[in-house]
Amino acid sequence: MVKEITDESLLHKIRKVRLLILDVDGVLTDGRIVIDDAGLESKHFDVRDGHGLKILMRFGIDVVLLTGRRSRAVEHRAADLGITEVHQRIWNKAEVFTDILKRRDITQEETACVGDDLVDIPLLRRAGFSVAVADAVPEARRIADYVTHHKGGRGAVREVCEVILKAQNRWADVAERYEFA
Prior knowledge:
Elements: H1 8-15, E1 19-22, E2 34-35, E3 41-42, H2 47-58, E4 62-66, H3 72-81, E5 85-87, H4 93-104, E6 111-115, H5 121-126, E7 129-132, H6 138-143, E8 146-147, H7 156-167, H8 171-178
Parallel strand pairs: 1-4, 1-6, 4-5, 6-7, 7-8
Antiparallel strand pairs: 2-3
Helix pairs in contact: 2-7
């Protein structure tokens, strides 16, 4: 269960969000990379995180993946979720962030970014709503607007999706769709 946010200045930031930008390793995954004897890589993704992203996209909020590593597993997961914009092997995330906003005609204030490590800090500083996962490095947690209760790859992304939808008063629509209200 996601704790309700009551801080009006934070709610104001979240209500503007039209785009969610996610790091992958340590955010969508728990940060572990498994490489077998044949050199094949695998990652662990949380199914509830994925469902949260699909719900978020259904309600008009786009999702972009922006990661420093390249992995076929990320391509497969993005395709499975319907995420069409994926940037891999990115060393300067801030530069790509600026390009994404320009192409989409979106302001920094209309973005949410989720990260876990030092390389994500430039994005967290620029985003309208910045999020660090519970097990992020202290520097990222310190500057984030919101720190999840869940760890990366263990429900943090689902939590962020719920926080956004609840702040934007769309959660009742989600509830209605699944008839659990």
